[in-house]
Amino acid sequence: MKPRVAVIATGTELMRGRAVEAHLAYVARRLEAIGLEIDRHSACGDDLSRIVEEIRTAAARAPIVLLSGGLGPTQDDLTRAAAAQAFGRPLEFRPSAWRTIRARFRRFRVPMARINRRQAFFPRGARILPNSRGSAPGFALVAKGVHFFALPGPAPELRPMFERFVIPLLVRAFRLRRSTWWWEGCVVGLPEATVDERVRTLVARRPGTSYGLALSGGTVALHVQADKARSLRILIGDLEKEFGARWIGTRSLEETVADLLVRRRATIAVAESCTGGLVLHRLTSVPGISDVLREGWVTYSNASKAARLRVAPSLIRRRGAVSADVARAMARGAADVAGADVGVAVTGIAGPGGGSKKKPVGLVYHAVHYRGRTRTERRLFPGNRDQVKERAATCALDLVRRALLERGR
Amino acid sequence: MKPRVAVIATGTELMRGRAVEAHLAYVARRLEAIGLEIDRHSACGDDLSRIVEEIRTAAARAPIVLLSGGLGPTQDDLTRAAAAQAFGRPLEFRPSAWRTIRARFRRFRVPMARINRRQAFFPRGARILPNSRGSAPGFALVAKGVHFFALPGPAPELRPMFERFVIPLLVRAFRLRRSTWWWEGCVVGLPEATVDERVRTLVARRPGTSYGLALSGGTVALHVQADKARSLRILIGDLEKEFGARWIGTRSLEETVADLLVRRRATIAVAESCTGGLVLHRLTSVPGISDVLREGWVTYSNASKAARLRVAPSLIRRRGAVSADVARAMARGAADVAGADVGVAVTGIAGPGGGSKKKPVGLVYHAVHYRGRTRTERRLFPGNRDQVKERAATCALDLVRRALLERGR
To answer: Which chain B residues contact residue A304 at CB under 8 A?
Structure first.
């Protein structure tokens, strides 16, 4: 049984919405590498009795407690006093810490306020953790069977201290080794509940494995883990078989598409109506995309679809701008005009206005043209304007991905 | 004495560093407007006994408990069961909620998995809170002297539910009134430290006022509050005087630009190189933009700048694609080709590759053409590829805003 970990963040600014908790995700991932998982996280304001209470609650249920914030010199900085009270250890002045603090101020030629002396007091028996990036030292305290760590609030100060001291101290104290194997990937083009049902069945067949799901930008992000490297490998094989081409592995969809384009030596042109530039924005977030992205258009108006992408005005009149035929013509036009190998197009109704009974808000047609073949996809997306744009862009990128996979074989 | 508030976030992905808590800051600010402050925040994974324990701990010390997450249809979604257990209320099937869920699936023509039926079970006596943006209803439960609210995890679903139901229910139950007056706005085109210094001076002159800053997408978001409505009005007047045209009030920069375009009856065309569609994506996030946005280009290559925007190839050879002259020619070309009143262009080096000593990563030229005049702006942005894109897009939108403000008078 692994030791539990409790994490506490302090700071009135967190409770008042003036700052956002910044360490949990980082700490969670670093602990995972040594086989530990966070059991609970809590936060409270800069109030002595509240911090003491949080430390006591955490220490009552976890042998490892990590607290961030409250190590500065001001009246609001109460971590030293709270730890002393919670663990029944008096505060003591530590001359060596005081020398280090003074030397730092001299080095940066900053005038030192008298209150900085507070930062040289620690609960008796604490091990001082030097701060390579700021004036506030942290500390580690083993008391009442609990390994307590007090770390600075700012991320640039906390992280080096965490890597250099917290991880090695934990590994030694609890004889840890890399014990959990995990892996992340994305499934595109299926609803969350469907992905969940299918993954649950697979995981149930493989003892020692577990999983979690999260929606991210129209794709379902999947996190699986196992107690043995071999079990994880087998489970990943199961997942690949189950989801086939809908399974895009650890990279983002846009990175996957960019990589496929580069590997196929295929250039691309993009024509967007309702997504309004989002497909292009996501593609151009990938460094090096300029080698394969020829150009892109945002053609909101019918006139612009006709003038830039050579979509026949009569076709728009007959079928409507939001139709499979116009999407198809846009994709072909984009590829032709740009002289690109791949053309991708999106046309739809992002809302909130512009919908009708026959063509409601959320109706989007996607098309991709590649090597003489054009395929289209019709979707009706739920959600507000931003969500429809996001989901339609994901669908368009996925359509490109699948076309490249099939035709590239 | 104000009632205490405890906030709980659930989700194994939070504990494993796969997601970041997203509601605390928003909830804190909204509660502040009705005079409430969060006393504690905690988070735990998707584990029934852990969630029950968190609810019990929170309910033991606060009469108001807000919990987010765990309302979906999957086996990870345990909030309904945990609340039932923590408050000793059996789960009951609610046909009306089930009808609403089914109607939603029918409307979007999504195949419904059997497990979605789980979402229609609630602890006895719960008041169902409709979800206008997703399939998962929330609920409110008054039990054992505690007002408990279960809210969906995704922010676009939680926020409307919070505004429409949680705030009014709390105001009624605890006879609250609006005790703090607050206001938010953005300053564009100044560094954070400069904005901070100037606002600090103004706030110091007005007793009972305070402020907070946050960087968001290249603009500085400012939050000011006061203990009296009158003090807030006076402070806002001070801020307007201090920042003049750099002050854009409560709306986003893209909304401000869209509104100015509509009011001036000016159409716009956009030509992007290094921002790769982000200016267009941000503009098209504003509903109704189709009335004024003619079209847009992402012209990554030199050939595309020449062919689409009529930029003279000799100019590109002479000055380089990343230059004030080419930005100017792109803006003019975009306006001319599209027949739009305003043309805006961005060309630069987003990185990580492509930089040189003379033209380093982060160098961006912006240009806007309006009523026969073209103005340009050269900026050197710090940060990675995404940050450079974000800041350059903000600068381009702000350039359009200022051109419209000046020429529209």
So the answer is: 294-295, 338
